[in-house]
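User: Batch of two.

Assistant: Item 1 of 2:
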Amino acid sequence: MDIEAGLDLTQSFLIVAEELNFRRSAERLHIDQSALTRRIQKLEHMLGFALFERSTREVSLTPAGRSFYEENARLLFSYSQSVKAARLVAEGKTGTLRVAYMAFAATELMPSAVLRFRNAYPHVAVNLRYIRTQGQKLALAHDEVDIGYMIGPFDHSDFHSLLLANDPLYVVTPKNHALLHKHEIRPADLVDCDLILGDMIEWEAYRWRLNEMFAAEGVPLNIKLEASNTLALLGLVAAGLGVTVYPESLIGFLGRSVEVRPIMHPNFRIQTILVWRRVNRAKSLRHFVEIAKNLPARI
């Protein structure tokens, strides 16, 4: 007997075991009572033991029949629950979404999207990981994360990308620095400044973009110190050891120990993009992208 036929027989048995009445069970199954009787007899023959004790007045389960019913009822419930759970995942209402982000998205873009996503889909677990831009590309390619906030641009046939912000760049200086006396600060004004930048291990993509922008203006970068994190960079600037360059998204979080001025040049901007694999069709991912897309843009 094939599996499908065995499942049909077992389903018929479960209904009879619930009703303990062949007429009502046949009505539920939309078959003749005689056909139902034959199904039960066939199942009993296949199993090698009786499932029901029958009399002219009542039907009851045998001890073996009760054991068979309880086990199959448990399996059926487990199957039903697994179908419901899988359906919720398919609909993007549960499961896990793995989100990577870099520093420029950490203050506003990522938290705002996660907040709205959690409110809309509270049963989807959001797993956040801080990963620099180059590392995110590898993590996405190896299916270690589902979506990432990174420095753009990034064009690749295997990935979708969405521009979320195109932040102007600012020079960050110590208090009373000479640059602050200028009416406007342009890229050429930084030619004689000691620069303090993030190191190439953690700030690689950002450093490349800065190099491209300043090189296009013929301004060499006079890098005197490097640091791996934002707090160290700010501490070094505040101590008077040099100046640094930050995107507008971080300006509101710098504190009072430094001063900031915009760099007046239309090309001195840094992109923050959202990237995900084209082959990832999870609805939870699509829901997150829609939420991130509909946040107020900084472009």
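Item 2 of 2:
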Amino acid sequence: MNRNDVTEKIIATKVAQGIRWADVAERLGQSKEWTTALCLGQMTASPEQARIVGEVFDLTEEERKWLKVVPYKGSLPTAVPTDPLIYRWYEIVSVYGATIKELIHEEFGDGIMSAIDFSMDITREADPKGDRVNVVLSGKFLPYKTY
């Protein structure tokens, strides 16, 4: 058994029982974005979070232990994503990445946006021309240090 096996069981149970990520997040007291990342094997659960996720997805004690292991982060099976939705994010970074970099550097200076001290919010935005996906990414700015 490994973390991927646990992730596959979580997804299979989610589908079979019609579980929504937002409902799991509410039980955990965390955002749906972080909770989904946890359940997909990209975050580390506390003992209490592992217990709750285990209850929701009927995980064994051994499977719950895997939720507490620090994962190997990065879940894409290929360097260039082939899934159409994920590929669009790749396309956004390919087209707008240099612009995002320039504007962040112009506003903050030389540094990076943290993906560790980070939050994300995904919501549906009603629009008469077709609903829109609203994604807000918020990461702490970390300046490069001189030494």
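Strands lie at 111-125, 132-143.
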